[in-house]
Amino acid sequence: MKKHVLTGLAIALIFTACNNNNKPQEGSSSVVTSPAFMEYSVVNVFPHDTSSYTEGLLVHNNELYESTGREGFSKIAQVDLSTGKAVREHYIDKAVFGEGIVIFDNKIYQLTYRSNKVFVYDLKDFKKIAEYPWPGEGWSLTHDGKSLIASTGTSELQYLDPNTLQVQKKLPVTDENGPVNNINELEYVDGFIYSNQFLTNNILKINAETGKVVAKADLTDIFAHGGKVYKPALLPDPNEDVLNGIAYDSARGSFLVTGKQWPYLFEIKFR
C-alpha cells in the first residue's frame, strides 16, 4: 500500500515539475509588463509663438527648428529659443497642411497631412529641392542616422530610405494592452524613440528595435510643475491645442517640449 502511495506521489511530483517548466520564467519574452513611469523636472521655460500650431520640433547643431500646421499657416522655421521668434521661415502653399520635419544630410524633409506629398528643402536657405509622393496621412519624422522614421497616426512606424523614401520596414508599437495608436511627433535618442501620443498628455519611450513602449511620462501638470504655476493664455481650442513637439538637446542633455499654440516651451529632464 505504501509502495502505491509513494509511486502516485512521485508521479504527481513529476507532473507538477513538468507543468512548472512550461510556465513563463521571470524576465522571459513571454512576460508582459506595463511601461515604467517616467518622472520629469522642468529646468527652464522659454516663450513660444502662440500662432504656431506645432507639428514638428527638433534641435540641430544647437539651433531650434519647428514646423507648423493648418492650411494657410503651415511653415518651417528656425527659431530663437530665448525669444520664441523665427530667425528665418518659409511658408508653404496655403492649400497644404504641413506636418512634422526632420533634418538629415543637410536637408529638411517635411511631411504633409493629407496632400500625399513630402517636401525636401536645402537646410541653408529653405529652398525646395525635391518633392516625393506620400500615400495616406503624414504626421511626424525623425531619424536614427541611417533611416528616416515616420509616423502616420497609426500604431506603426515606417523606416524609410532617405534617398528614395521607399519603406524599408514597418515597426508596430505596442504596450501591455496591444497596439498603441496616435503615435505622433517623434524624437530618436540612443536606441529609443520618444513620441507624443496625440490627444493625450503622454510622452512614450519606445524601444526602436522591438516597438515596445518601455516607459511613459504624463505631462498633464506641466503648467504647474514643481509648485511654480505658469499661467497659459486661454488656448483657442483646448481639445485641439494639445501637447505636441519634442526635441532632444544633446548639448543640454534635456528635452524641449511644447504644444499647439502654447505660450511656453519647456525644457525638461526625465528621471
Which helices and strands occur, and which strands form pairs?
Layout: H1 2-22, E1 36-37, E2 40-47, E3 54-60, E4 63-68, E5 75-79, E6 86-91, E7 98-104, E8 107-112, E9 117-122, E10 128-133, E11 140-143, E12 148-151, E13 156-160, E14 167-172, E15 174-175, E16 178-179, E17 183-189, E18 192-197, E19 202-207, E20 213-218, E21 243-249, E22 254-259, E23 264-270
Parallel strand pairs: 1-20
Antiparallel strand pairs: 2-23, 3-4, 4-5, 5-6, 7-8, 8-9, 9-10, 11-12, 12-13, 13-14, 15-16, 17-18, 18-19, 19-20, 21-22, 22-23
Protein name: Glutamine cyclotransferase
GO molecular function, one term: glutaminyl-peptide cyclotransferase activity
Keywords: Transferase
What does this protein look like?
A hairpin with a 4-residue loop joins strand 18 and strand 19. The protein has one domain (52-270): Methylamine Dehydrogenase, Chain H. The protein is 8% helix and 47% strand. The chain is mainly beta. It has one helix and 23 strands. The chain is globular and about 45 Å long. The strands form six sheets. A five-stranded mixed β-sheet has the order 1-20-19-18-17, with no helix packed on it.
Summarize, please.
By secondary structure, the chain is mainly beta.
Q: What structural class do the secondary elements suggest? A: mainly beta
**Count of helical regions:** 1
The assembly state of the depicted protein chains is single chain
Which outline best applies? globular
List low-confidence stretches. Answer: 1-29
Strand count, sense and barrel status of the largest sheet are: 5 strands, mixed
What's the CATH architecture name? 7 Propeller
Calculate the terminal CA-CA distance, rounded to whole Å.
Answer: 64 Å
Q: Report the mean per-residue pLDDT as an integer.
A: 88
Could you tell me the number of beta strands? Answer: 23
Q: Which sequence of strands runs across the widest sheet?
A: 1-20-19-18-17
The total tally of domains equals 1
State the CATH superfamily name: YVTN repeat-like/Quinoprotein amine dehydrogenase
> Which bin fits the share of residues in helices?
under 10%
Order of helices and strands: HEEEEEEEEEEEEEEEEEEEEEEE
Protein name: Glutamine cyclotransferase
Keywords: Transferase
InterPro entries: QCT, Quino_amine_DH_bsu, WD40/YVTN_repeat-like_dom_sf
GO molecular function, one term: glutaminyl-peptide cyclotransferase activity
